[in-house]
From TrEMBL:
The protein, known as: 3-dehydroquinate synthase domain-containing protein
3-dehydroquinate synthase N-terminal domain sequence ranges: 148-259
Source organism of this protein record: Megalops atlanticus
Record domain 3-dehydroquinate synthase C-terminal: where: 261-399
Origin organism lineage: Eukaryota, Metazoa, Chordata, Craniata, Vertebrata
Keyword Metal-binding: yes
Alphabetical GO biological process terms: antibiotic biosynthetic process
Top-rank taxon: Eukaryota
Keyword Mitochondrion: no
Amino acid sequence: MSFTKKIEVTKADDSRRSKRLRKTEFSLVQLKSTWKRRTGKCLSQNDKGRVSAAKLFESVTEHGHSWTVVSPIIFTYKVVQSQNLLDPSNDTLLSGHIRDLHQLEAFKSSAKPVKRFVVIDETVNNIYGSQVTKYFEARNVIYRILPLPTTEENKSMELVMKILEEVHRFGIDRRTEPIIAIGGGVCLDIVGLAASLYRRRTPYIRVPTTLLSYIDASVGAKTGVNFANCKNKLGSYIPPAAAFLDRSFIQTIPRRHISNGLAEMLKMALMKHKGLFELLETQGRFLLDSKFQSSNGLGDHKDAASVSTRVAIETMLEELAPNLWEDDLDRLVDFGHLISPELEMKVLPALLHGEAVNIDMSFMVYVSRERGFLTEEDTARVIHCMLQLELPVWHETCTLSLIRKSLCERLQHSGGLVRMPLPTGLGHADIFNDTSDETLTRAFEKWYKELSSSDHTIPETMTLNLSQHV
Ligand SMILES: NC(=O)c1ccc[n+]([C@@H]2O[C@H](COP(=O)([O-])OP(=O)(O)OC[C@H]3O[C@@H](n4cnc5c(N)ncnc54)[C@H](O)[C@@H]3O)[C@@H](O)[C@H]2O)c1
Ligand SMILES: [Zn+2]
């Protein structure tokens, strides 16, 4: 009954639509302090430079007027690699986000004291807190530093509200006093969401302190917290005013968290950059041992850290910038993220994000091999590289039924297509919608047989042709 009614309404809508009398496209021109509509014909030479990129479309039907607003919104943000970020002689933290030269001059010559609200991960505060305080003291900044236990288990609206209350109490000018977040991906995601809510959009700055957040969480636009036991269910697509990256923070993160970040780097390598893959293959273990610190006098290897982080960020930005709001659902950066969200939340806190991503990638590499996109040798090279980076390549909770369930959910949330990124060679990839259940099953059986007992060592069957590469 209700279904029939729906059809009637639709028909009525259609007939109404067909009786449209007039549709006009307007540009918007600024005249002194007011905006006026102009049709294309009426735009004069004098209007140049004062025409908005926005448009108004007006329809007139026998039932009245309707307007459609098209208002392009541009986001501009900086990702800046910097050294000695906490050295008081370094301006980056206070003014590195200002792009306009006049504004920068005004900032430098202003007598008004600078004010900053800083949220810092509690562990990071224990290690770097005194340096942060010294920096703001030396620069005569009016500041408030809020250390918080920003762990994955605490990644919720509660911490967002806590930040908002403290920001409100401290008081900031939302145009000129960005909130600063210093910590790993969890801290940056929570603060980003709080900033995007405060006064509808307050600028914020990201200072990543883990490898994963350095190459991944800090370069894009996403903010978020977990909700209803689902990862990042609440969030926004509001990029920071700037991300300031200082690799020296990485030296104090635990080894396991270096591997964790290397997984996201390997993702970009497998999808887009053979050179990065080869670098990880040959220098990955060194990067892990040296914690991405170049200045440790290890000669030839010393550039691996700067090259690998730069390429990881460049390849990530290439994919993110044209698709900041993820409207295009075909995304190579989703590699390793089809099964892993379900797996990660199911075993939380047993697997770190990057570890779950790696298990997903390891399985997908077997799918690629099964489909004939990767040779036996390439597959062995990838798995060997993962093991060198001390990443898990298999997990008992990652069963065939969990894989099927995750892919079904993906179908529902991705417009009816699974959009499966798969490597089609080392450093090349494409998106596929035609992987059959038989292929998945065969890939799973081989994956299980070859890797379930791997126990962090390369299975004997795979070592045959590796010596020439590593
Ligand atoms: N917004 C995005 O685009 C994006 C992208 C990828 C991941 N993420 C999110 O990032 C999170 C994972 O980030 P993460 O791996 O950085 O985890 P994390 O923020 O939990 O940090 C890992 C651990 O390292 C500690 N730590 C941080 N910096 C340290 C330092 N310099 N020295 C010593 N200890 C330090 C933290 O206290 C924490 O215990 C996930 O919640 C994920 O959803 C977001
Ligand atoms: Zn990820």
